[in-house]
Write a structure and sequence with these properties.
By secondary structure, the chain is an alpha/beta fold. It contains 7 helices and 11 strands. Strand 1 and strand 2 form a beta hairpin. The chain is globular and about 45 Å long.
């Protein structure tokens, strides 16, 4: 990954440098349509990495593993709002729902919490917040929607692909997994399509890649 020097002397990935007010993710249109179409309640949604950005710079050890060289957090005016938009869609759908937020950075997680309850005055009684790494800390259960934009592209291609596979396994049949085009570029389009296989349909729109998991069509598929 290539970096440039930010306004405060921090290193900023070129893929997201200059984003002070991020564009609305194009996946929200797919999620909105899903919420209106589904009859299942409560609808369970996960949103991973909603606030600012936080990542590790690593350096290789002699044994081939990676050592964390520096942990970087940066907001640069980039307010976390994706969880706000998703929560708003859930409220507008009129369905009972639960939203689980997972974030690596304590500062980002607290910022996401306060923007929802204090700035937007949204009901957070059915919202949970988890601090941790996506590879190790995920909510229980099988969600209907997973929103994970610009998280996988901080990983190595191999780790990003393994994480994608893990999320896809946890997703409810018929559910949606949304990632960004940056994430897809990290994994590689051909690798992503091979990992997804015939289990799901891949749709691309603007800055988003939406993976729609298919419903089992017969007993043999359910056994898998």
């Amino acid at each position: 990954m290539r970096f440039k020097l930010g306004a405060y002397g921090e290193l900023v990935p070129l893929a997201i440098s200059g984003l002070t007010q991020p564009k609305r993710h194009d996946s929200l249109g797919f999620i909105e349509a899903f919420l209106h179409a589904t009859r299942e309640e409560p609808v369970a949604c996960w949103i991973i990495g909603p606030g600012g950005y936080s990542y590790h710079l690593t350096k290789p050890r002699a044994d081939g593993t990676q050592e964390i060289a520096r942990h970087i957090q940066n907001f640069s005016g980039r307010k976390p709002r994706e969880h706000i938009e998703l929560k708003t869609l859930l409220e507008q759908s009129g369905k009972r729902h639960e939203l689980h937020v997972v974030e690596l950075s304590p500062k980002n997680l607290e910022f996401a919490r306060t923007t929802m309850t204090q700035e937007r005055k949204l009901d957070a009684s059915n919202v949970s917040y988890r601090l941790g790494n996506i590879a190790e800390t995920l909510p229980r259960g099988e969600p209907h929607v997973i929103s994970c934009h610009n998280v996988l592209f901080y990983m190595s291609p191999q780790q990003a692909n393994r994480t994608l596979e893990k999320l896809l396994r946890r997703l409810q049949p018929g559910g949606l997994l949304a990632i960004s085009t940056n994430d897809e570029e990290t994994i590689g389009r051909q690798t992503l399509e091979k990992t997804v296989g015939n289990r799901a349909e891949i749709k691309r729109r603007g800055n988003s890649v939406v993976i729609s998991k298919k419903q089992p069509g017969n007993r043999k598929e359910r056994a898998k």
